[in-house]
Write a structure and sequence with these properties.
The complex is a heterodimer of chains A (about 500) and B (about 350). Chain A has about 500 residues and is α/β, with parallel strands linked by helices. Chain A is about 35% helix and about 15% strand. Chain A folds into 3 domains: about 270 residues, Rossmann fold, CATH 3.40.50.11540; about 70 residues, Roll (Ubiquitin-like (UB roll)); about 130 residues, no CATH class. Chain A is built from 15 helices and 16 strands. In chain A, the strands form 4 sheets. Chain A has a 5-stranded mixed β-sheet with strand order 13-12-16-14-15, sandwiched between helices. Chain A has a 4-stranded antiparallel β-sheet with strand order 1-7-6-3, with no helix packed on it. In chain A, strand 4 and strand 5 form a beta hairpin. In chain A, helix 12 crosses helix 15. The longest helix of chain A has about 70 residues. Chain A is globular, with a radius of gyration of 29 Å. A two-stranded antiparallel ribbon of chain B has the order 1-2. In chain B, helix 1 crosses helix 7. Chain B is globular. With about 350 residues, chain B is an all-alpha fold. Chains A and B meet through helix 14 and helix 15 of A and helix 1 of B. The structure holds iron/sulfur cluster (SF4) (2 copies). One iron/sulfur cluster binds next to helix 14 and helix 15 of chain A.
Chain lengths: ~500, ~350
């Protein structure tokens, strides 16, 4: 699958400098010192926030349910270590705004004692629904960054008769290597997780796709998958954003997911390798998702590494451990440098979505001196979604947001290729995110004013109805009174 | 509206190619042909080149100052220099100095700044200036110097050259003649036929550039190599040059096969520095060409068609500039109709159908 033949399946994209070697060549560090306090947000997933079950002062064990999921699309949250609940309150979120969201603060007791769970025997004897139930109860969400509740996807898979499960091992973002290391070191567990997912979705074939810049991971995964004909491991070209699910689906299956559809509607579901690993842990060992491997890298990090940390660990603790130099740090990025967001400070927790934390120096960053667009069309060439970023940016600058929507703003996946390539340093993605937010806000405002209008009308109608009723009652009363008077008069007359 | 000194969204890293680097790489690709041209046509060419580039930069600085912006960063992007350079390449090498100044003024002020500066112009500034000059000063713009390289005994001396550029020597005829295409055109009007006209045509000399022509547009070889290097460097895409050259070759091939007495062979069309310069350096201008690959193919083909028509039947044998300007005008239209297909949608923008199993 090389050359022209495969080319039509990959569109756009860039070949970003990888900068992965500093972390990809060392084993995952597992002896991260347990932090004194963990800040566990109630929302670490797409959907509704979880609802806390515990009270302040309660003593919990590692893996104990802290907050249960709410509604169709949601995920529960568990204690990442044993200890005492200190607080349930609003704290700054790991988000560029650092706006407060609800978190559970856990003071660890240092014992890191697991909650005991009953052994379930051979999970392949369980009914498929049971697998998704358990995955849901373990709080597993897409660990590639999308954080969509995995159980919901498994259910959709079962309902839609999926024929291919794709496991995303592309890890196409520069710097990040947590999936790479996970595949190298825990291939058997991942393949087991994949098979459990297949069982849970009642699907019979899985394809693990790994970029060809990770030969060791590929070798380890191939070896682990060897006994299982249902799991195939393939290499894919290294090209950002190969890990964009829709790009990967097109590359692996040749099918394109229509806009507005889920991939399950065309018979494909995609999960990340980290998710498969979490599924293995949940089903085989009864352990919910309470930790993850995080890449800590960047020019300002003196000990770059992949490290397994309990969820809720403050980035500050992580940085201490990795010797991050604050003077050299020009920007802190959560996630990869292409799609990740910059964080205002480091007193923010790591969450399920945190694949990496980067401390970048000035020289690693893209220049910010913006120049006029020279219409070089590079952004059009690299856009994997087939958009025209320069025209959208022009529309947004002229405040014609509707025009930007018309030419595809909503199809933008914020992959960052256009910003990456732009020789004029135009912050295109910044424009697009701003505009999308604005459009959503306007729609909401309109929705709200419509709703207000509807409410007003309903109230008026109610008042009118009441007035009408009162009038009718009044008339009825008057009529009744007249009738009574008449009857009385008649009676008097007859008497 | 927004501050992005500390952008919150990606990409946080970037390809390290700035506007300035792009401009300089294009100039680098132009330099072999330019140096060769300067050498071929001697001191007058050197003077004209310097005057044109200097005035382009000064005009740019003047406009930026008028707008009340900082001059230095804008000049540093190199775009004004490149525009001046491209214009100078297309001027007759012994043209008087004021032609360079007027041309640079037209290119920078009328061709670029009135539209709002870099990236806003509809027409290629250098071509706009060149065509305007051609219409306004037909004599000066079609007086082609003989090849008279620097440091050759019968080339004009430094002092004579100053005279040629700055005070317009009257007796130029002894040193000048017509370009190949111009010559063919005049000889046709004398009812001569091609095989006869082209008795003295040397393909090799034309290929190297040892021939009469514009200051930097004589060498097929050097301009072609410069262009290929730009493609290799990924500064320009192959679509425009290839479709332009193929169209010219195809059309001229068909006509040449039908009537080889009156229609020049594709080989002669393509073996021309001017053609290479247009195909690789002028038509590929980012600002004034379409921004999709398909659009670029259409644009290149359009340019090729018009170049062939103008060269063959038009009044200006070196009229590639007109062709490019006409296609520049069509660029917004091409970009409007030829768009990339959005992922998950059909060409019209409707979501794809879910394939039936
Ligand atoms: S990459 Fe930048 S300069 Fe080039 S066309 Fe796009 S927005 Fe303009
Ligand atoms: S961020 Fe949006 S517009 Fe830019 S390349 Fe990615 S999908 Fe295209």
């Amino acid at each position: 699958m090389t050359g022209l033949f495969s080319n039509w399946r990959i569109r756009g994209g860039v070949h970003a400098e990888e900068r992965k070697t500093s972390t990809a060549t060392q084993a995952i560090v597992t002896d991260f010192p347990l932090p004194k306090k963990l800040y566990i947000p109630l929302q670490q997933h797409v959907g509704k926030p979880a609802e806390p079950l515990i009270k302040v002062g309660e003593v919990v064990l590692k893996g104990q349910l802290l907050a249960h999921s709410q509604g169709m699309i949601s995920a529960p949250v568990h204690a990442s270590s044993s200890g005492v609940i200190l607080d349930v309150n609003d704290y700054p979120a790991p988000h560029p705004s650092a706006l407060p969201i609800r978190m559970i603060v856990l003071e660890t007791d240092g014992k890191d004692e697991w909650l005991q769970t009953p052994d379930i025997g051979d999970p392949f004897q369980l009914p498929p629904e049971d697998i998704s139930l358990r995955v849901g109860a373990a709080g597993i969400v897409g660990l590639g960054g999308a954080t969509f509740p995995t159980a919901v996807k498994l259910n959709m898979g079962r309902e839609n008769r999926i024929d291919t499960l794709i496991i995303n091992g592309a890890e196409c973002e520069p710097y990040l290597s947590c999936d790479d290391r996970l595949m190298q070191e825990r291939a058997d567990a991942i393949i087991d997780g994949v098979r459990l997912m297949l069982h849970g979705m009642e699907t019979h074939s899985a394809v693990v796709a790994i970029e060809d810049n990770k030969p060791q991971a590929f070798a380890a995964m191939t070896a682990a998958a060897l006994p299982y004909p249902s799991v195939k491991v393939v290499q894919i070209p290294t090209r950002y954003p190969m890990g964009w699910d829709r790009q990967l689906i097109r590359y692996v299956t040749g099918k394109e997911v229509p806009v507005g559809c889920r991939s399950s509607e065309i018979g494909v579901t995609i999960h990340n390798v980290g998710t498969a690993y979490a599924v293995h842990n949940a089903i085989r060992h009864g352990r919910p998702l309470v930790s993850r491997v995080v890449t800590v890298a960047g020019g300002a990090v003196q000990r770059p590494m992949n490290v397994e940390v309990p969820l809720g660990t403050l980035i500050a603790d992580l940085f201490n451990f990795c010797y991050v130099s604050p003077e050299k740090t020009a920007r802190i990025v959560m996630g990869g440098p292409m799609m990740g967001d910059s964080l205002p400070h480091i007193s923010l927790p790591t969450v399920k979505a945190t694949s990496g934390i980067l401390a970048l120096t000035q020289s690693e960053l893209k220049d910010t001196d913006e120049q006029p667009c020279i219409r070089c069309a590079s952004c059009v060439t690299v856009c994997p979604a087939g958009l025209r970023p320069l025209d959208m940016a022009n529309n947004i600058r002229a405040n014609q947001l509707d025009a930007a929507v018309d030419i595809g703003l909503k199809d933008c996946i914020s992959c960052g290729c256009c910003s990456y390539i732009c020789p004029s340093n135009i912050p295109l993605v910044h424009y697009f995110k701003y505009a999308s937010g604005e459009v959503a806000a306007r729609q909401q405002a309109q929705h709200k004013s419509e709703q207000t209008k509807r409410l007003m009308e309903a109230r008026q109608a109610r008042l009118d109805r009441i007035a009408q009723q009162q009038k009718e009652e009044e008339e009825a009363r008057i009529a009744a009174k007249k009738e009574r008077d008449r009857l009385k008069a008649e009676q008097e007359a007859t008497v | 509206m927004m501050t992005h000194n500390k952008p919150s969204s990606g990409a946080h890293v970037g390809a390290n190619r700035s506007v300035r680097q792009i401009m300089w790489q294009v100039m680098l690709a132009l330099s072999p042909a330019t140096v060769f041209g300067l050498w071929c046509f001697g001191w007058p060419a050197v003077f004209l080149f310097s005057v044109t580039l200097t005035s382009a930069v000064l005009f740019e600085a003047f406009c930026i100052r008028l707008k009340g912006k900082a001059v230095k960063p804008v000049l540093l992007d190199g775009s004004a220099l490149l525009t001046g350079w491209l214009l100078a390449m297309t001027l007759p090498p012994w043209a008087p100095w004021w032609l360079g100044v007027v041309g640079a003024g037209l290119a920078i002020v009328l061709g670029k700044q009135v539209y709002g500066g870099l990236g806003q112009n509809l027409f290629n500034p250098a071509m706009l200036a060149r065509v305007a000059l051609l219409i306004s000063f037909p004599i000066e713009m079609t007086t082609w110097a003989n090849v008279s390289p620097l440091f050759f005994a019968d080339s004009p001396s430094f002092a004579d050259s100053l005279g040629i550029t700055f005070s317009g020597l009257q007796n130029l005829d002894a040193y000048t003649g017509a370009t190949t295409l111009g010559y063919i055109k005049t000889e046709f009007s004398q009812h001569r036929l091609l095989p006869d006209i082209l008795k003295d045509y040397s393909a090799v000399l034309n290929f190297i550039g040892w021939t009469r022509g514009s200051l930097g547009e004589t060498s097929t070889l050097l301009l072609g190599l410069g262009g290929l290097w730009l493609i290799r460097q990924n500064i320009i895409q192959w679509q425009i040059p290839v479709s332009l050259l193929m169209t010219v070759a195809l059309l001229s091939g068909v006509f040449h096969l039908l009537d080889s007495d009156h229609y020049v062979s594709p080989f002669l069309h393509l073996n021309s520095g001017a053609m290479m310069c247009v195909a690789f350096f002028i038509a590929t201008d980012y600002v004034t060409s379409p921004n999709t690959a398909t659009g670029q193919l259409v644009f290149g083909a359009g340019c090729g068609l018009l170049i062939f028509v103008i060269r063959t039947w038009g009044a200006y044998p070196e009229g590639a500039g007109f062709a490019v300007l006409l296609m520049n005008a069509a660029t917004p239209l091409i970009d409007h109709y030829i768009r990339p297909r959005i992922y998950g949608r059909d060409r019209k923008g409707k979501p794809l159908e879910i394939p039936k199993p």
